């Protein structure tokens, strides 16, 4: 008695939009014979997407439509029923339209576009929106349609000139057809609403229309008649631009045309009065006649000119007395590096300038050249900073007068450095057959300097700053190299099991851009007795080494210089002792004489007291019955203890002030 599904059931195919959807059947039961009726309800599932009639929709909406206008949209269809059928619509975000979803009597949904913000074709000619239809399934199914809205133009913009006033000037003898000015206006509307026609304003005088013509399509204002400066010097022309709309928009502008005078009138001389005859004894300065001269032309065209001939009384003058030019080395030959600028207020040949290059160094003439006409200084060859850093020369600027006048301008050319030289190793010498081996004894502690790599860089500044790096070593843990000194130190204490021979490869790099590098190979032997190493070295050294004699003479020179220095210092010491003994005897004799001399004053020179530095000594003046005496402190750094060879100064510092009790009979005299 089981009821089975014999094929796939499609509710939409069986019932369409009818709901509920049911299938009826009858069952016959035999023995006894009975008839039963049954109904199967087909329940809907969300197995269909909403569908729009087309994937795109197009609307034309005038920009003059007011806000609040509604525009119905085509509805989507969903064959599902109930909650699975079409439930709502959604509109993509935009600033102009909103979506209003309505429900029909049968429960179906439809949507309308509502204009919230007025359209402006001049801002946006078209809009693209997306309308989405959603059913109520879980998850919901959807469909989309592209809505293309064309904004239809309305004549809501008047023409606009790009400027309200145009200015032009023409000569009075300008022929007919000459362009005076071109006016331009624009209209943001489209079609006939944006087509512009130019014309004279209604209040333009007939005389102006006779002298000027205006192209209605291009806005070109041209000369039509004969202009005369003496008749009218300035024309004020009013023009207008109209579009071709049903109610045309109008814009106005004016053109100011200035007529420029030309010398088209000869001067007229009028004799006002003549005193004739003139007596033969008339004094100089007597008026003979009164004349008046008139010219209808204006400004310079109306003057009687007196020509003043030029005299070469001005020397050329340069904008600068000297020039400093910086040129990168390895430059391209033939490039200009400087333009010497000079002026001459004279006229004609007197103001024609020529430039000549003078140089104290004859080699400069092969390196630099100057254009005689314009003063452009050229570099004829490539310069090398390492060869020469600075060039000095004189540029003479001379006019063409008679006699000519000249001015000298100094030019200094500085060659700036490029990093074009790698470091050069001085020690150990590279690419030689001789082998230089440095020796270090076993057990040498860490931090001991074994040798030093010496290198130079022909460049300058930062390009010549060399750094040293240990690139390769027999035992990398045994030696280190100073980054900027090139000194090779032991990194740890040497052990007996260390290799007897070590080869170090030192990488030398400068700090230029790009970085250039070189390498040096250092051989180090670990030996208990230096003689063993020397014996080994003699086997590999060349038989005849010319440097042996140089080394011998260098050692001999050092010994001689050291001996001379020792003898000199010994002689100076003996001389100093002799002078000291002589001054001591003089001091003792002067002291005994000083105390035997009668008088109210006593003078004592205290040399090298226990409380003063060795380079100080004091004079103490004692007066009889004085309550306080003066202490004069001699200046330091004296070479003799004698007071006569010192300059004295009065010192009141607490550490050097002494009070000596006595009685004062009188103050010391200035010379005492």
Overview of this protein structure:
- This protein is mainly β.
- Among the domains are: 11-42, no CATH class; 56-152, Cadherins (Immunoglobulin-like, Sandwich); 160-260, Cadherins (Immunoglobulin-like), CATH 2.60.40.60; 317-416, Cadherins (Immunoglobulin-like), CATH 2.60.40.60; 424-526, Immunoglobulin-like (Sandwich), CATH 2.60.40.60.
- It has five helices and 42 strands.
- The model is unreliable at 530-543 and 590-672 (pLDDT under 50).
Largest sheet: 4 strands, mixed
CA gyration radius, whole angstroms? 57 Å
- Let me know the number of strands: 42
Q: What CATH architecture label of the domain at 424-526 applies?
A: Sandwich
Q: Portion of residues in helices?
A: 10-25%
pLDDT < 50 runs, ≥5 residues: 530-543, 590-672
What structural category arises from helix and sheet content? mainly beta
What is the H level of CATH, i.e. the homologous superfamily of the domain at 424-526?
Cadherins
Global shape:
flat
User: Any idea of the CATH class of the domain at 424-526?
Assistant: Mainly Beta
The portion of residues forming beta strands comes to 35-45%
Roughly what is the average pLDDT, rounded to an integer?
80
What's the N-to-C terminus distance? 156 Å
Return the CATH topology of the domain at 424-526: Immunoglobulin-like
How are the strands of the largest sheet arranged? 3-9-8-5
Question: Count of helices?
Answer: 5
């Amino acid at each position: 008695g089981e009821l089975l599904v014999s094929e796939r059931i499609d509710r939409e195919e069986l019932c369409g939009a009818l709901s509920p959807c049911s299938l009826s059947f009858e069952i016959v039961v035999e023995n006894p014979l009975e008839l039963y009726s049954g109904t199967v309800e087909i329940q809907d599932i969300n197995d269909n997407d909403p569908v729009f009639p087309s994937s795109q929709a197009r609307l034309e909406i005038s920009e003059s439509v007011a806000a609040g206008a509604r525009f119905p949209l085509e509805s989507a269809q969903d064959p599902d029923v109930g909650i699975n059928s079409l439930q709502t619509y959604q509109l993509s975000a935009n600033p102009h339209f909103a979506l209003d979803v309505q429900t029909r009597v049968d429960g179906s949904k439809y949507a309308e576009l509502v204009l919230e913000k007025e359209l402006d074709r001049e801002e946006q000619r078209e809009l693209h929106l997306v309308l989405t239809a959603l059913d109520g399934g879980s998850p919901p199914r959807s469909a989309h349609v592209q809505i293309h809205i064309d904004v239809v133009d309305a004549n809501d913009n008047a023409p606009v000139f790009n400027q309200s006033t145009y200015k032009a000037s023409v000569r009075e003898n300008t022929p007919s057809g000459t362009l005076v000015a071109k006016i331009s206006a624009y209209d943001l509307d489209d079609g006939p609403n944006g087509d512009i026609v130019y014309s004279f304003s209604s209040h333009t005088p007939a005389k102006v229309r006779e002298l000027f013509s205006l192209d209605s399509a291009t806005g070109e204002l041209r000369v039509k008649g004969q202009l005369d400066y003496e008749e009218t010097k300035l024309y004020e022309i009013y023009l207008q631009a109209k579009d071709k709309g049903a109610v045309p928009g109008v814009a106005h502008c004016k053109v100011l045309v200035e007529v420029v005078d030309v010398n088209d009138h000869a001067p007229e001389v009028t004799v006002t009065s003549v005193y004739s005859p003139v007596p033969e004894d008339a004094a100089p300065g007597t008026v003979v006649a009164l004349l008046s001269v008139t010219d209808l032309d204006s400004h310079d065209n109306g003057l009687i000119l007196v020509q003043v001939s030029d005299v070469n009384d001005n020397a050329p003058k340069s904008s600068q007395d000297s020039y400093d030019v910086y040129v990168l080395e390895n430059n391209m030959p033939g490039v200009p590096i400087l333009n010497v600028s000079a002026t001459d207020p004279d006229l004609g040949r007197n103001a024609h300038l020529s430039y000549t290059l003078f140089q104290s160094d004859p080699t400069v003439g092969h390196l630099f050249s100057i254009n005689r006409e314009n003063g452009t200084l050229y570099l004829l060859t490539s310069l090398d900073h390492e060869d020469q850093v600075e060039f000095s020369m004189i540029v003479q600027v001379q006019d063409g007068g008679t006699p000519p006048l000249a001015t000298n301008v100094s030019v200094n050319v500085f060659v700036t450095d490029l990093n074009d030289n790698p470091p050069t190793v001085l020690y150990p010498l590279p690419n030689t057959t001789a082998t230089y081996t440095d020796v270090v004894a076993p057990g040498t502690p860490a931090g001991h300097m074994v040798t030093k790599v010496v290198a130079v860089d022909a460049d300058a500044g930062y390009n010549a700053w060399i750094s040293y790096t240990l690139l390769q070593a027999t035992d990398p843990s045994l030696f280190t190299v100073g980054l900027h000194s090139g000194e090779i130190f032991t990194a740890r204490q040497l052990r007996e099991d260390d290799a007897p021979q070590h080869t170090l490869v030192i990488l030398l790099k400068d700090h230029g851009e790009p970085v250039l590098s070189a390498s040096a190979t250092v051989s180090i032997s670990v030996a208990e007795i230096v003689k063993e190493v020397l014996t080994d070295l003699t086997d590999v050294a060349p038989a005849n080494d010319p440097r042996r004699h140089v080394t011998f003479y260098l050692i001999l020179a050092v010994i001689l210089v050291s001996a001379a220095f020792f003898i000199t210092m010994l002689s100076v010491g003996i001389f100093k002792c002799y002078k000291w003994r002589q001054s001591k005897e003089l001091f003792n004799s002067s002291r005994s004489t000083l105390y035997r001399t009668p008088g109210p004053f006593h003078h004592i020179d205290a040399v090298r007291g226990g409380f003063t530095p060795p380079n100080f000594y004091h004079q103490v003046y004692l007066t009889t019955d004085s309550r306080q005496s003066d202490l004069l402190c001699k200046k330091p750094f004296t070479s003799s203890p004698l007071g006569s060879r010192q300059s004295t100064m009065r010192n009141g510092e607490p550490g050097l002030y002494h009070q000596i009790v006595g009685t004062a009979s009188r103050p010391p005299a200035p010379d005492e």
